[in-house]
Amino acid sequence: MAILSRRNLLRGQWHRSSTIRAPWSIAEEQFTDLCSRCHACVDACETGVLIASSQQAFPEIDFQRAECTFCGRCAEVCPEPVFRPIDTPAWQRVASIGQSCLMNQGVTCRSCQDECETGAIKFQLRLGTTAQPVLDMASCTGCGACIRSCPVQAIRVS
Ligand code: SF4
Ligand code: SF4
Ligand code: SF4
Questions:
Q1: Which atom of ligand 3 is nearest to the CA of 107?
Q2: Domains (ranges, CATH) in the chain?
Q3: Of the residues 20, 110, 137, 140, which should be mutated to test ligand 2's pocket, given the most ligand atoms within 8 Å of the CB?
Q4: Interatomic CA distance for residues 143 and 158, integer angstroms
Q5: Cα separations in angstroms, 32 against 5, 81, 87
Q6: What is the pTM of this model?
Q7: Which of 1, 84, 102, 132 fits 107 for a cystine, CB–CB 3.0-4.6 Å?
Q8: What is the pLDDT of residues 15-69, one digit of tens each?
Q9: Which alpha helices (DSSP H) does 13-139 contain, by range?
């Protein structure tokens, strides 16, 4: 399902509801109205997780490339009022692990746990089957480090 801002609809632009903006970004409709697409944030991003798919594109997060370290550089360099103060919570996103996880097929894999610095992913033993990954939502920062490590793209941050 697409989310449409009237102004962007008139410009013939829209974004997928799965699009993730940088941490501390304001609401999507205001963001796409106020962001000038100068891409200063993309250039400043220390991990390369923030991208612009073209010169006209709004910056967005691509967790297949990297994780977010919450360094705050994107917000600091931005000349437009599209970021909240970085001493406020970055976002409310957390990871979720889908059914395609290899452990559901009896294949042992703990790549995501190895990447998670906050220890938010634990493996729970279940009788007669392989251990299953369980996410502690309170510990997950939504950094996305686990996403790239998953060989079957079973993890999303939303
Ligand atoms: S907080 Fe840092 S790592 Fe995250 S998107 Fe912004 S510049 Fe990139
Ligand atoms: S998003 Fe970050 S904190 Fe959350 S489970 Fe993945 S690696 Fe851990
Ligand atoms: S990395 Fe992917 S396949 Fe491996 S345990 Fe984690 S969610 Fe499952």
A1: 3
A2: 16-90 (3.30.70), 95-157 (3.30.70.20)
A3: 140
A4: 11
A5: 8, 11, 23
A6: 0.87
A7: 102
A8: 456 899 999 999 999 999 999 999 999 999 999 999 999 999 999 999 999 999 9
A9: 28-34, 40-44, 73-77, 111-115
User: 120-125 long-range contacts, Cβ below 8 Å, gap at least 24?
Assistant: 120/95, 121/95, 121/97, 121/146
Amino acid making up residue 36: S
Which residue spans within the chain are E strands per DSSP? Answer: 2-3, 15-16, 50-51, 60-61, 95-97, 121-126, 129-135, 155-157
List ligand 1's pocket residues with C-beta within 6 A.
22-23, 44-47, 49-50, 68-74
C-alpha 3: how far from chain center = 18
3-class SS of residue 36: coil
Q: What is the mean pLDDT of residues 125-129?
A: 81
Q: Do residues 132 and 141 lie in contact, with contact meaning Cβ atoms separated by under 8 Å?
A: no
Q: Which amino acid is at 136?
A: D
Residue nearest to atom 8 of ligand 3 (CA): 101
Please compute Rg for the chain using Cα positions: 17
Asked if residue 130 has its Cβ within 6 Å of ligand 3, the reply is: no
